[in-house]
Amino acid sequence: MSTQLKCQLIDEATFNLLISDPDLGELTVSLCCLPNAKRVTVTIVKANSLKPMDITGKSDPYVKVILLINGKNIRKKKTSVLCNTLNPIYNESLEFDLSDEDRENTDLIFKVIDYDRVGSNELIGCIGIGVHFDGINRDHWYQMIEHPRVPITQSYNLRETIPIITCKNSKTTQQTK
Ligand SMILES: [Ca+2]
Q1: Do 90 and 46 contact (CB within 8 A), yes or no?
Q2: How far apart are CA 13 and CA 35, in angstroms?
Q3: Rounded to two decimals, what is the model's pTM?
Q4: How many angstroms does the Cα of residue 23 sit away from the middle of ligand 1?
């Protein structure tokens, strides 16, 4: 009985750790939809209070953006590396060609990564925006579609991981197998 209770307490503590991400910093991005050109402009505005990854107490951050359609990696683009800073200001626009149809099935993954000259680059934190996410991460995408040619800006707390994207069609596929 007491062992069982103890286990439950541990589980709860682990659960709390999982839902409260450590302070990795904040990323500000702007989305703008140009329906006539069938294009979406993703502007990486800035990041704030990033987690230091280097021995200097700073990081050398860049942002990689991955475009997914129906959960499949379609394209990726990245910003330049800004050295020795925890508060990089990019104001860099990344263009993605996107048809009206694909726009309804799109997600964007943003990864803030510390560049290292020696060894492999390390992930600082990430976020996801698009139709398969919840809350503001989803609403931001639809606000962009509803207001074409207007840049919509939003700041996000970075997370250690992003939830797995489950596609609307994937369940049907599993059932038919
Ligand atoms: Ca570094």
Answers
A1: yes
A2: 47
A3: 0.83
A4: 18
Query: What are the tens digits of pLDDT across the range 39-60?
Result: 999 999 999 999 999 999 999 9
Topology (CATH level 3) of domain 21-157: Immunoglobulin-like (2.60.40)
- Tell me the CA–centroid distance for residue 160 and ligand 1, in Å: 18
Q: Are 82 and 88 within 8 A, CB to CB? A: yes
What is the Å distance from ligand 1's center to 72 Cα?
29
108-128 pLDDT tens trace: 999 999 999 999 999 999 999
Residue 175 C-alpha to ligand 1 middle, in angstroms? Answer: 46
Those residues with Cβ within 8 angstroms of residue 21's Cβ, 6 or more apart along the chain or in another chain: 125, 157, 158, 159, 160
Q: What are phi and psi of 66, to 5 degrees?
A: -115, 125
CA of 61 to the centre of ligand 1 (A): 7
Rounded CA-CA distance 74/107 in Å is 10
Query: Residues 135, 124, 22, 165: what is their CA dihedral angle, to the nearest 10 degrees?
Result: 30
Distance 54 CA to ligand 1 centre (A): 5
Domain ranges of the chain: 21-157
Distance 156 CA to ligand 1 centre (A): 22
